[in-house]
Each structure stands twice: as structure tokens, then as C-alpha cells.
Amino acid sequence: MDNILILTIVVVAYLFIIGYLGYYGYRKTKTALDYLVAGRNIHPVVMAISYGATFISTSAIVGFGGAAGMFGMGLLWLTFLNIFVGIIIAFILFGKRTRKMGHNLDAHTFPELIGKRFRSPFIQGFSGLTIFLFMPLYAAAVLIGAARFIETTFSTQINYNVALLIYTLIISAYVLAGGLKGVMYTDAVQGAIMFVGMSILLIFTYSKLGGIIAAHQALGAITDKVPAKLVAIGHLGWTSMPKFGSNLWWTLVSTIVMGVGVGVLTQPQLAVRFMTVKSNKEINRGVAVGGLFILMMTGVAFIVGALSNVYFLNNPNFGKISLEVAGGNVDKIIPTYINSALPVWFVYVFMMTLLSAAMSTSSSQFHSLGTAIGRDFFERIILRGKQSPYTVLITRIGIIIGVLVTVALGYRLPGSIIAVATAIFFGLCANAFLPTYIGALFWKGMTKTGAIASILTGTFGTILWLLFIHQKESEALGLCKLLFNKPTLASFPWVVVDPIVAILPISLIVAIVVSLMTKKPSKEHLDNCFRHF
Amino acid sequence: MFGIQDPGVWLAYLLCILSVVFCIIYGFINWNKGE
């Protein structure tokens, strides 16, 4: 039977399952609480897998997995941070308090939580607007990754524009109908497919290269094959960290490891997951599931990406390192490896793995975009927080607007933007919201003025850093060149230092200093916020 | 360790495994803890 026909049957069957779960979510959605936070009674395994599947997109598997093909296994520090910060700290320290405070304040979104904690409609509205303005960049990156992959797989049947449109329409349908329940039920199935696919990929790769230790030793033995231009910027081999303080070291540590590793804490689409369970028991159970899930996603992608160098170099059909086989495009390393090193049936499994990774992330992004502009900005600022019977309708309109903006960006942004756009959004969220989020949950002395000052410092500090300092973005955006006739106002190492390293400490200091200088919130309000802590 | 020479890399590999072991133990110890 024709390979494309088999793949089409598999994809159609998969879409039927997703469609049914979206419909099931729609049937179970009766109130705004159901639509926004899944009725606060989601099963712990569904919550944990949904969190992981939302966190991990094609960007993590293909984009960052490909980056590991270039950088090497040093990227495993990001996997460690993904588990330590993204699961252990996020669930145990932040998750439990987020759930309790979310219940106490009857918050339905991340901006609503910090807005109500500091009794500030401005915080909720500004945070919602910031998320709505910048999340489409990240959402478009995931969209582009998915559409490019569909286009490559069905090269003769579907072009990029059609792939983008079909993909968006399918996800929009079940997000609009089923709300967060529909999103989380489909996430759970998609997460299970991802887990199976990545497990097989890890076993196949290590088996093919003679086992764990033999594979790592083989990778260490080809250090002399590192291209001279990479050696010049600090590359010391695929089983070594880059030279300390080099251009490559700063890129790996500040942008990839710190930017994405820490930024996860303030992702609005992830923080809201903690508000979907009814007690901390569910969060405790989620830790076990979430930790293993994340290891099998980013850990496998980074190990396989790095080890692909051994496969390609030892294979007489290639005889080159991964980066050269992929023609210098890191995004092509993982797909090329899958297509050449693994059996045909696994190519189908991996296709479903990537489709699941993309859809589970996109659906949550669309839902968060809708709640950010609908509930956090429109209801809170325009309607001045009045109780509205049209919350679900307003959120649905918000989702449609968010999807349209994302699709428009998806048609315009270049393909090479995927990892950069992801890192920008993660970094912006950390710089703008992390000090306020920490203060909201852990420091009763944090004030409304301190929170507002920190959010504004983080948001505009990040924007200015990207426009005038961080060379990768300042050069691409061109405003610095236009105003000052040079691509960046700084010199090495600042031009390769991610905003999270420079702006987050400033945002944190501003939050503390301003809070110490301004009026504390009332005891009654704090007692209400911290009830049952 | 694990066939990797650079401690900066094998330490990351080891910490990934240990952190997942912690997650699983924590999850099961607190399986029924948490109204």
C-alpha cells in the first residue's frame, strides 16, 4: 500500500479521536468556570500530561533537538532545568500556592490571579494585553514548525499555506467548542502519543550505536570533526560544554538554558493548569508523571540530536556531521535523522508525535490568547470588572482574534524564527511577571505599587534590550541601525547576553525596593489571599 | 561517567536522572497527601 495512503489513514483516525475528545469537552462544559479552568476538577494524570504536552512543542523536539546536534550534550542542562524548575519547583512550590490562592480569590487566569492578589485591575489588564501582544510570536513559531512539517511529509499533496490553514481550523474548532476541558482531554491523548514516540526513538538510537556508554564514547571520539568556525566561537566537542565565557557558551547558557529553563514558571498557559485541580493531592501525583514525561521529551530530543553526529559520520551514505548533512539548517537535523536512520513505520509514529506536540501547545496558546484579551483585558478594563453573563462568548471572540493574529504572523515570519521567538516569549514572561508572581505567592510585604513597577520594568526593559543590545534581534529588527547607524549599542559579551540575565535581576530589585517604600495591603485582604496556606 | 569525559556534561546527565527519581519518589510518597 502507498506510504502516503497509510499515513493519511493514520492521521484521519487520529483527528477523529481528537475531534471526539473536543466534543466530549464541549458536552462537559456548562459554565464559565468549566470553560476557563476546566471546572477545577481535572484528573491529576490528565493535568500533568497536559502541562507537559503544552510545555513541549515541535520547537523543543525539532528546534532545540537540532540545536543539540550543533551544541552537543551540554543542552542537557536545559533538560535538568526543565525538570527541576519546570516540574519540581513549579509544582511543589508554585503550583500548590497558585491553586490555593486561585481558589481563594476565584481567579480563572494567570493575570487575574496576580491582579486580584494585588487588587489591581491595571495589573490584570496590562498583563493580559502583554500576553496577547507577544504570545502570537511564540504561537506563530509553533504554527510554522507544524505547517512546515506537514508540508514536508505530504510534499506532493499539501503546500505550506494550506497546511497552516487546515491545522489552525482543526485546533480552533475544538478549543472554541470545548474550552480548557477540550484542550486538556486532547492534550492527554497527544501527550501519550508523544511519550511512546520519544521512548521508541531513544531505544532505537542507543541500540543502533552500541548502547549508552559506547554511544557517548563514540560521540566524544569525533571531537576533531567540529567545524573550524564553531571551534573559533568556543565549541570543544559534542560531549563537552563550550569554552567558558565564549560566544557559544553565552548563547547556550544565557539564552537556551536560562531563558527557556526559568521562563517556564511564568508561562500563563502552564500556570493556569494548577488552578484546574481540586486539591494539592492532585498536584503531588502530577509531580511523578510530569518529571518522567519531561525527561522523555527534551532529554531524548537533546541526546538523539547530539548522537545523530555519530550516525551520520559513520554512515557511508553521509560521512559528515549532522550540521553539514542538514545543509547548515539545525531545524532539519532531527527530521533527516528520523527519515534515514529509523524504519519507515517509525517515521509515521514520529509524524504523529510531532503533530501531537504541536497541536497540544497550539491549543493551549489559543485558549490563553482568548482569556488574555477577553477576560483579562476586555472584561476587566473595558467592562470595569462587572459580572458578565457573556464570559464564555467574550473569551471565544478573543480566541478568534488571537488565532487570526497568529495565522497572519505565521504567513509572514521567516522559518528560522522558531527557536528565537520561543526564547523571546519565555524571557519576556520571566522578566515581566516572575518577581510579581514570587511576591504574590511568598511575600505578604509585596505591594501593588511594587508589583506594577516590576512588571513595567521587566516588560519595557526586555523590549529595549531586544531593540538595542541583543545583537541577534536588534540587527533583525533594524531600529538601532535606523536611529544610531549601528546594529547594537553594546559590545561583547553583552551583545550575546539574553535579556533574562540582564533584566530579571533589575525587575526583582525594583519589586523589593518599591514594595519596602510603599503602603502594605490590608491584613484582611492578605488573610483572604493566604487562607489554608 | 556514562562514557562522557567532561564533568560539566555528565553532571547534567546525572542530575536529569536524579531529578526524575526524586519526582517519582515524591509523587508516590505523597500520593494520598494533600481537602
Question: Secondary structure elements and their pairing?
Answer:
The complex is a heterodimer of chains A (533) and B (35).
Chain A: H1 3-28, H2 32-37, H3 44-55, H4 58-71, H5 76-104, H6 110-117, H7 121-153, H8 160-208, H9 212-220, H10 228-232, H11 247-263, H12 268-271, H13 280-314, H14 322-325, H15 333-341, H16 344-382, H17 391-412, H18 418-442, H19 448-468, H20 471-477, H21 479-484, H22 499-517, H23 523-529
Chain B: H1 7-29
Helix tally of chain B equals 1
Structural class from helices and strands of chain B? mainly alpha
Please give the alpha-carbon distance between the first and last residues of chain A.
60 Å
Strand fraction of chain B: under 5%
Shape of chain B: rod-shaped
Number of strands of chain B: 0
Number of domains of chain A: 1
Domain unit count of chain B = 1
Radius of gyration of chain A using CA atoms only = 23 Å
**Structural class by sheet pairing and helices of chain A:** mainly alpha
- Give the name of the CATH architecture of chain A: Up-down Bundle
H/E element order of chain B: H
| Name of the CATH homologous superfamily of chain A | Sodium/glucose cotransporter
Separate helix tally of chain A = 23
Spans where pLDDT lies below 50 across 5 or more residues of chain A = none
**Poorly predicted segments of chain B:** none
Instruction: State mean pLDDT of chain B (0 to 100 scale).
Output: 88
